[in-house]
Design a protein that fits this description.
The structure is a homotetramer. With about 220 residues, chain A is an all-alpha fold. Chain A has ten helices and no strands. Chain A has a single domain, classed as Tetracycline Repressor, domain 2, CATH 1.10.357. The longest helix of chain A has 26 residues. Chain B binds a DNA duplex (21 and 21 nucleotides) through α2 and α4.
Chain lengths: ~220, ~220, ~220, ~220
DNA sequence: TATGAATGAGATTTCATTCAT
DNA sequence: CATGAATGAAATCTCATTCAT
């Protein structure tokens, strides 16, 4: 006879409650620290901020790349959720885009840029899956707005995600209270550019995420 | 009997030709490498790329901060030059803004973001002077375009410079041939936002560079 | 249910036994190596002699100055102990001085000279406290001997400590078995000078440790 | 037909006047800097203090050891001169010892200790010759004083030279105006110990310079 | 399991020595 | 000859990762 908990996770030994809490705290601390201080903070700093010993971090993640991987995946997932919620809850199709953009900024999607620079496995299935899900969710937002004539038809999903990520990328040395306000200002300006009817014809080439792969 | 050269500058020996060439090569290599691989490349890598020994680098720049300082100052100066040239040579006031924005991207103004994160003296007179000159030159561009009704009046110099820097910031891991093309696309989108008559009222607060100072 | 030990000190984990042992071994090795080879030995050499990796040394002492600080403090403390023991255990007051002088030599008090030349914080509270305690202990020895008419009244504590330190200062290049014997010979000669009734009047100025502070 | 100058130094090309002056300035600067800042100052610092380029230093001395060698030899020679002059000019035999001791201190004989630690050839003929001449000169002083019953008979030349060197050794970190006064105070105390009739029998073993040779 | 400690590999910086002007 | 510049080797210090309690 087995308990309900054992039934839900039958393949691995049931993780202890404090272990799960530690794991969560480490990922959260890492996200914050990466945003604040950049990608090259010592892992000891992250462990300290999470309130755990450094070896505990290694129990949960095999190496630095593993931790970065987890943070990236979690940021993508949270951003994805925002995209889906915006699509579901906003009546106007361009308002949905707007809401997503600002929400993604608050989820620190910009930190992804920084972390892509680290040497971790960018072809890991988790990442591919996450990107695909995010692409799909954003594509939904974009297509709806474009079909409704609310967004320029030459703007691609990749344009949106790239520009968004870059504009919200943290400036590790610069911590001041109204930095966020600037970011949202700039996003609004960008969105105004997206909304405007096309004046100058952009090179409307088909843009995909693959286009950004490093050339080997 | 002495030659004219000896008579004219007897006390301060002119710097040697090869030393000047080396200094130039180091700064150039550093600019390239910082853009390619981020702010935390080993100095040995820069020295190697410049074709000099690592100690030569230290003869010219007292430490890493000194080198970053030099690169930052040089990028600012080159960008400034582009602003002044655009103002002088373009007939249309918004075309001047456009030309400056794309030229600044090519001068790697985005690398400034990355380098501002490094720990070097951000209050050095050289930097202050450079920023002031750049601010003035860009203010000239912006005010002309706004007076002519070609640019939204709620866009500030700081908006322009910050968004421009962020959008052109290098993605150290990602080197591919058409990354630049994406950047210029996004700049065009942003400029379209700048050009459009104001639709949503932006919070028109007076924005200055001081606003980005870290809070002490 | 918790054990008594866990109950008594629950908040500050006691330092690990092996860490304490390592710390002790590093300080001991440093004291030896500084005496043997001078103040500018590589820290790697000290770590090797202590049988630990170099980074272990840096875990215990933040930098070279930190290690030198610790060695200086420990030598002062050990010397101090010798002074107090000599005062307590010797019947004759000048014998106590003699015993202290030779014991201080064996504690390598001379190494202090060498280490004072290194660039570490000479105004650290630990050092100030140590010096004061040592001064007090030696002053006790000196005053007793002088009150008993066993020591020249114009010899000050600072004279004793300085001359003692200089005469016992290690000669880093010179390691031979009877170097110590020479040192003790010279100390005896000096003590004979101290014991003799004053013949030539020395400039009896009040001498304090402050007199040796570098002029700013 | 040759000039007188060429006749006097026929084997090597006659050194130019400015070269000689430079050589002298380098040795003087080195002596000062070694006393002030210890044995491990950069050669560039010495060159700067001498007002010459670093390469000029290397033109005169093949390497750092060569420079140290020259300084050591020169200090020994100057000290030797003081010994001979004291012997010649002082009426009282112990006054001659006293005068020599204080003069040697002023010639920075203590710096020899520091430099013996550097890795230079301690068996070079120049050094051996210098030491022998110095030993002879000081032996003359000592024997006269002992024959006249003015100095304890158990004090050897080596005792005198070693104690003198140690007591006058510079403390590189400590530069203050009356440091010299302390040194001379201590020398006086030591001399008083030398002058006193022997009270405690010292271990009168024959002491020679050879006794200090490092054990191989 | 969680932790503080230990470690070697690598980055920054210095300096004795050589080179080119 | 004299010099500023260049250089590699070595020293200091950091950090991702492993070990032992």
């Amino acid at each position: 006879m087995t308990t309900a908990a054992e039934t839900e996770a039958p393949r691995a030994a049931r993780p202890r409650a404090d272990a799960l809490r530690n794991r969560e705290r480490i990922v959260t601390a890492a996200r914050e620290v990466f945003v604040e201080s950049g990608n090259d903070v010592p892992l000891d700093e992250i462990a300290r901020r999470a309130g755990v010993g450094n070896a505990t971090l290694y129990r949960h993640f095999p190496d630095r790349a593993g931790l970065v991987h987890e943070v990236v995946v979690s940021v993508i997932a949270r951003t994805c959720e925002q995209a889906e919620r915006a699509a579901a809850e906003e009546a106007d199709s361009f308002d949905a885009v707007r809401r997503f953009v600002h929400a993604a900024a608050d989820e620190r999607i910009g930190a992804l840029c920084m972390m892509l620079s680290g040497d971790f496995d960018k072809d890991h299935p988790d990442l591919t899956a996450g990107r695909e899900r995010l692409d799909a969710a954003v594509l939904d937002l974009v297509e709806r707005a474009q079909s409704a004539g609310r967004m320029r038809s030459d703007v691609t999903v990749l344009d949106l995600l790239l520009a968004l990520s870059q504009l919200t990328r943290p400036l590790p040395g610069i911590q001041c209270l109204n930095a966020d306000r600037f970011v949202h200002r700039h996003l609004q300006l960008l969105l105004d550019g997206f909304e405007a009817p096309a004046r100058s014809e952009l090179p409307g080439e088909a843009a995909t995420l693959e286009a950004l792969r490093p050339t080997p």
